[in-house]
Amino acid sequence: xxGGTLRIVLGDQCSRDLPSLDGLDPARDTVLLMEVQAECTxxxxxxxxxxxxxxxxxxxxxxxxxxGVRVDHVRLDDPANTHxxxxxxxxAVARHRPDRIVATHPGEWRVLQDMRGWEEAAGIPVEIRxxxxxxxxxxxxxxxxxxxxxxxxxxxxxxxxxETGLLMEGDEPAGGKWNFDAENRAALxxxxxxxxxxxxxxxxxxxxxxxxxxxxxxxxxxxxxGFAWPVTAKEARAALEAFIRDRxxxxxxxxxxxxxxQPTMFxxxxxxxxxxxxxxxxxxxxxxxxxxxxxxxxxxxxxGFIRQxxxxxxxxxxxxxxxxxxxxxxxxxxxxxPLPGFYWGAPTSMRCIREAVAQTRDLAYAHHIQxxxxxxxxxxxxxxxxxxxxxxxxxxxxxxxxxxxLPNTHGMAIHADGGVMAxxxxxxxxxxxxxxxxxxxxxxxxxxxxxxxxxxxxxxLYWDFIxxxxxxxxxxxxxxxxxxxxxxxxPAKVAAMRxxxxxxxxxxxx
Length: 510
Hints:
The protein is 49% helix and 5% strand. The chain contains 22 helices and seven strands. The strands form two sheets. A five-stranded parallel β-sheet has the order 3-2-1-4-5, with helices on both faces. Strands 6-7 form a two-stranded antiparallel sheet.
């Protein structure tokens, strides 16, 4: 059959309400899904991330076919696979001879650039529809950002609260405050064991994908064993419900806490489902709001959870599309040091790094404070090359797609954007990690020492970072306190810490 529309579904678009499926005519249209090697290897994605995307695609294909939709699903192991989006679109056009192509706006700049060339390459019209699965359209974000010298999430978040009505009481925020973050910074008490999150045993489809990924991408960091992420909308909703029931009530208090042997704490673990298109963000926000209104969860927990989705997730997407492609190339702090081997599992004496990297290897997951204040903080203080840091974060986490990874890493974690997102660098010494975790117990380093054989590297690196960039931060009111502290220090002590930092970094480079 010829004619009709070729409708594109990318790997992170496994949603029944995907705009490119709007108006689908099962009698004439074909839905194309493409598993391509290039998307698995442009960075060495964690095998569990590849399994997540491919399994979600195959389950989604089966669900579409069960509804009577004609599906053309090009598999990774198809011998004729060109292993590129453009190549597979052109092959599908030759097979089906459609009148036009309809796609949904992708999540990465490089894919959009490729997609914009399909019309000329295929010789038929290509319509790229806005991705309406987000709560803030890109034009809406652009209107908010227009004329601003800086982009602060808090102001954007308040507008989104007003527009959606989430956690609002008339014109005022519930509880009289927009943000309860100050109440969400407790360390995990001894004896409190977070309940295990709901995990999902791989079915036959997922097992087949796991075998394929293990064979093809076994050299990538991590492995497929232990994979238990949701791969269908039904599983994603079950994961959300389990979080609301079992962990939301204490999520707020301990969302910044870290503990050895507790990789998931009270976190939701739904970011993979949100970012792969398996779960609707408003559904997640409404479920949490309902829990508060029904007395099943406190406001500080629910507000913190909703802020991560309605505020932060929508905000970083807007930042990405507002500032790309130049944003990715910024390096405001002139950081050039190569990524150390311990990010890929090489031995290190720093227990906090070992814990974060080991669970990342095993689960393709670490929560936001581990990413920001352990691996990200180290990258910031040590002056690691932003391009290498960004590629690592994009590769190793199952929820990492560039629209969400790049601003979080580039702007929030390593301040490579010079303050476009964050008004100050999120730099911290060993004292922060000691306060928010139990990692320092049993570590080879002492968080109270900045020099000497047991000095915590985060301490001397922190003060070296502050001294190195003192001129740059002199006009930043949020950096006034560490700069005043540095100025009052004994110059000999400063010199000793900076010498310690230099020795540590030289050994790192060697």
